Amino acid sequence: MACQVVVKKFNEFKKSSKYNSDNVILYINDTLSDETIELMRQGYEEMSLINLELASMTENELNDVNEYETWLCGE
Q1: Is the pLDDT of residue 2 over 50?
Q2: Residue 72, CB half-sphere, CA atoms under 13 Å: how many?
Q3: How far is it, in rounded angstroms, from Cα 38 to Cα 27?
Q4: Closest CA relative to residue 73, chosen from 30, 65, 38, 22
Q5: Residue 39: strand, helix, or coil
Q6: How many CB atoms lie within 10 A of CB 35?
Q7: H/E run at residue 56
Q8: Mean pLDDT score across all residues of the chain
Q9: pLDDT single digits (tens) 26-48
Q10: What is the per-residue pLDDT for 1?
């Protein structure tokens, strides 16, 4: 359920966004600074720990996480 809300909000943002795929491609082709690369590396490491924690959760714990995410989205 929470994923559906995120996808819906993303699609709404995408429709109302002044950015298009051409801008995204230009951004990707730009050279990233060392600071940006380091921040991205740290972000991936933090996300890997979160993913490991989620992977080890029981079904009941995952249900609690889903309920919390639903609450965060205001549903």
Answers
A1: yes
A2: 11
A3: 18
A4: 65
A5: helix
A6: 8
A7: none
A8: 78
A9: 555 567 788 888 999 999 999 99
A10: 47
